[in-house]
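Entry:
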Amino acid sequence: MIQIGTDTANVVHLADEIWLTARHNGSVSFDVIRNAALAVNSGGRIIAVGPRSEILSSMRSDQIEIVDHEASVIVPGFIDAHLHCPQLDVIGSGGLPLLDWLNRFVFPAEAKFSDPTVSSLGARRLVRELKKNGITTAAVFSSVHAVATDALFREFESAGLRLITGKTSMDMGAPTELLESVESDLRHQNDLIENWHGKSERLYYAVTPRFALSCSKQMLRALGDLKAKWPSCFIQTHISENKTEVAEVQAVWKQHRDYLGVYEDHGLLDGKTLLGHGIHLTDTELKRIEKVGATVVHCPTSNTFLGSGLFNLRKAQDFGVRVCLASDVGAGTSLSPWKTMLECYKIQALQGEFCSASELLYRATLAGAEALGMERQSGSLEVGKFADFVVINQSRNLLLAERLVKTNSAEERFFATMTHGDDRITESVFVAGKQIYRQTDLVN
């Protein structure tokens, strides 16, 4: 690194390539700049993106700090819009469909998060793994415990990452030790919102009913009131992940027209709602989701691992529904956005559709920012946005490096990286222009 000037100098990151994804007039583009530079001001915002010769010639040499990421690629920071902190330890627990899997593996793991030591360690481990995988923003389900949710906020604040999280609400359909009364749940949530929502302009609260089978009518009504009290909060939940789950919801909530109607009728559906999975949504549900501007969060590695079904991305797109990607760890098998994109590609290919590089990168970055209302701040490398980006060094994966030699286009290089990529290729991660991770920081 060559440092020139003062502490408030502009910072210029030089890379072999910058991979860009952005929306233009309703369509998504995938652009590549070779021998590129990304200029960031002292406030952490991007002031220029382009060929390095042009960027450097336009800036005063006595006011810049140059960071040269030799033979590397810069991509926007990845956004994981649905995952579960307490489930890191149950990744790879197989052999069961969704509802049985929850009872056998997940609920026992989540019960342990009542212990402050366990919850702090779990939050710290999640932060470690997210940074290694280049994820700069995450929407995370905590456990039902306020202490665990507080630990998540504290760890993400310290790490410099962006976080949307909430205390999971459950007063039925789970072991007794994971149930909490409506009154106690609301008291804890109000405290968490007052303490954390909007803090540092990076940390935000989400009202989090686990799903329709884990909440009573009284709980859902109270959560709708909580959302009305705090309208800037997000909502995150699950919907239509598994056919058995859908059938049980229809049997329990007969007075509502469908699964979506359970949330809709309790004031839990709006433009800040993140609906995990949505594999088996009906046409009428898709129409209503589009109308309010809610988001379906596609979790491909989770869906295939649990045998839940194949999400039809094209159908959702035809209805105008916003869709972004997520790992859904721990039913999801990896926090790697490369693996998530690859599985998304496979699921669509099985249905006769083939996603382009531009769409896959968009779903893993800018689409997540749009879902979170952060598209003017992050999600792509555009002037005026915060410099949330990842530097990847493909040479650190030998098989990938050998494959790249045989590619002829940026599209080919992207797909090769998506196929072979893992946390080894994450060289460093930046949020708002500040480096929050470099590979030597952590033991792999």
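The longest helix spans residues 116-132.
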